[in-house]
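Let's practice the habit of predicting before peeking. Look at the sequence and jot down your guess about where helices and strands might fall. Then scroll down.
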Amino acid sequence: MTFFKRTVKTVPIDRKTVLVRADYNVPLDTKGAISDDLRIQASLPTLRYLLEHQCKVVVMSHLGRPEGRDESLSLAPIAERLEELLNVPVMFVEDAIGDTVVQAVKRAPKNTIVLLENLRFYP
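Done guessing? Here is the structure:
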């Protein structure tokens, strides 16, 4: 029996809003700076592909194991690093649930990356 695995390259995605679950659980140094961005770089081919197809890309991830909001584990530095690597603006939303997120995604233009705050801030 063979299975057909769907990927972003096998489904019609042009000009769609796409939700990406990325693994940005990267190591941080004592000052909170990213010390190894390998996991961020691993997501770049997918993000570039989606941007090439004029998608609105909503990215969600986690960092660390907080038990509620912990600003030292915010994904804001990830947004900055993504901007540097992709050379495109990344809209960082300081929330991951609720109307703030819905409105931010609605306002975002096509060909944009929207990074949501750390999912583990919401246990």
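How did you do? The first helix runs from residue 38 to 52.
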